[in-house]
Amino acid sequence: MCTAQRKRRGHGTLAVVGKTVFFSFIFNLLNTSNAGLQCTLIPGWLKQLDAGAGQVYGVNDNDEIYRLNGNDWVNIQGRLIHVSVGLSGLWGANRGNNIYKMQDGNWVQVAEQQCTQIPGWLKQIDAGAGQVYGVNDNDDIFRLNGSDFVHIPGKLIHVSVGPSGLWGANRGNSIYKMQDGNWVQVAGALKQVDAGGKAHLVGVNENDNVYCLNKDTTFSRATNVPFNQLVASLKYYSCGLYGCWGVNSHNVIYYRLNVNSENCKGSGWKHVEGQLVMVEASTDGEVYGINTVGQIYKREGISDSNPIGTEWSLVDIAGPFKHLSYDGGILWLINKDGNIFKCEDKKTCLRIGFQEDI
Ligand SMILES: [Ca+2]
Fold this sequence. Notes:
By secondary structure, the chain is an all-beta fold. The chain has helices at residues 25-30, 215-218, and strands at residues 14-17, 20-23, 40-41, 48-52, 55-59, 64-69, 72-79, 82-86, 89-93, 99-103, 106-109, 113-121, 124-128, 131-135, 140-145, 148-155, 158-162, 165-169, 174-179, 182-189, 192-194, 201-204, 210-213, 228-230, 236-240, 243-247, 252-256, 269-275, 278-281, 287-290, 296-300, 311-315, 321-327, 330-335, 339-345. It has two domains: 14-106, no CATH class; 113-345, Regulator of chromosome condensation 1/beta-lactamase-inhibitor protein II (Methylamine Dehydrogenase, Chain H), CATH 2.130.10.30. The protein starts with 13 loop residues before the first strand and ends in a 13-residue tail after the last strand. Residues 126, 128, 160, 162, 194, 196, 238, 280, 325 line the site of calcium ion.
């Protein structure tokens, strides 16, 4: 367990009475002595605030963030449970204990991942159900074995592993699934597949038509299985614990509504803000994507009750990257040169007053 560090400021105090905050930031700002401290009630309610470098910020019970502007609290973007301001800038932590810093007017997530390079080169990677597979520019297929990628038979341009098994598409867009240690061709044509959903398989073809297989057919040994077509045009489609995400040829992001383990088709699309060239929904619920310049974004606030989440946060890992996948707390990244990176979450704890340690 982590031990929360209490900030040592030496200037100012605050007292919380009920939900009303009386505080002595004026004292902090003016650097007057404790004697003669005068308290003024500022309208509004906060659960936490911080003063430093002449500024005051706070958050309320809804995680909304406020900046003191004169005698008024002004709502600013984002959701945090704790905010801290000082000479090192404006920092905060959200309900998931992710740490953010305000940069150029935007909250940027501070890197929590420690990345190590894995020997080899890949152009595409997929992780799911505790396994990791990838393909390289020669369509060779690799499986992660310990800390190395080992070559396995076959030729694919895209591979995916998850609850519905190991699937892939080759350069001719033929579909294959691994059965009893062999690649078995399944009727149909797809350029990208994803096996990460609740035992169903999804994919898109060369015309960006979108298809899915329900779990009964996913696990059947038949080679002619009834793909269901969804009304959509997507270049990439991926499913995870909390549903399916896709992007179209204009990099517009969509979430598929009402997908469940019995009904891979779902019904309706929900447009999600932002632009991504690919998005991967993981078997453990996290959703990550890559934007047009190779930066990584993580979807925040995803839960069973809110599977679409709340916002995209930039993951501060130097790229640019062209492909990614996430499973079991590990973010797998392929950079533009094909180098493979294994990034492990370093979530530890929310350190109160962390800015003073930086
Ligand atoms: Ca996947």
